[in-house]
Amino acid sequence: MNTDRERSILEILLKEKKIRVKDLARQLYASEPSIRRDLASLEKQHLIKRVYGGAVLEENGISMIKIPFTIRELEQSSEKVMIARKASSLVGDGTVLFLDASSSAYNMIPFLASKKNITIITNGLKTQMKLAEYSNIKTISTGGQLLNSCYALVGEEAYKTIDRFTADFFFFSCRGISAEGNLTDISEAEDYVRNKMMEHSSSSYLLCNSNKIGTTYYHKLCHASQLNGIISDSEPPENLKPYFI
Q: What is d(CA 30, CA 161) in angstroms, rounded to the nearest whole number?
């Protein structure tokens, strides 16, 4: 991803699925020629498809490509560190954790390094690589099919591994939480792994940036009432407050 504006364009397309150049130029305070160059760059990265007057993000393209982990790492990074610190404070010595492949869970690792005798089971390939830097943390990979652009392991082999463990905590993220409390995402395969981890954990916590609150994507993961809590960087809307810690 080359520019902040390209990331903004992709976020808009994820929500609206189709957008015109003139509308993007108005929303992002940029010239139309600049927007067209950005769209050309995004198309080269196989993230969008340009059409006459604008661009689209097809559902099939979303399910095959996903949002690259590298984009997620750059989104709201300081807020994610704050959330990671709060989440890690819940974890004591001698615990077993599931972490999904999200960058929010990935950011917990430096804070978990001070814990003693913990085990982390994850389907995140980058998470596993980061955990390799800490010899005091026992790391278990779920295995499974690799989703190349988001570095997540999914599928039957991942489920089989998860079925063999029981964790004290599951920390994860998703693309959005609706005003009604529904957690949604664009990756069905990752959601199925998250559901399985949730089933095998005593406590499950969503790591949620404030910019995700009030947004909805096409695949439902679960409802906030099924969690032990939501950890965020800001105050939630009044109707969602009971779910936040």
A: 48
Characterise 107 by phi-psi region: left (phi > 0), alpha (psi -120 to 50), beta (else): alpha
HSE-up of residue 75 (Cα within 13 Å, Cβ side): 21
Report CA-CA distances (Å) from 83 to 14, 107, 116, 141, 169. 24, 9, 21, 24, 15
pLDDT in tens, 203-219: 999 999 888 999 999 99
Alpha carbon of 198 to those of 39, 108, 132, 213: distances in Å? 38, 18, 24, 21
Q: Residue 91's Cα: distance from chain center in Å?
A: 21
Name the β-bridge partners of 19.
55
**Spacing of C-alpha 207 from chain mean position:** 9
> Rounded to whole angstroms, how far apart are CA atoms 242 and 181?
10
Distances 223 to 93, 165, 181, 219, 226 between C-alpha atoms, Å: 29, 24, 6, 12, 6
Residue by residue, DSSP assigns 7-54 as: HHHHHHHHHHSEEEHHHHHHHHT--HHHHHHHHHHHHHTTS-EEETTE
* pLDDT single digits (tens) 173-201: 999 999 999 999 999 999 999 999 999 99
Q: Which two tokens stand for residue 71?
A: 């984009």
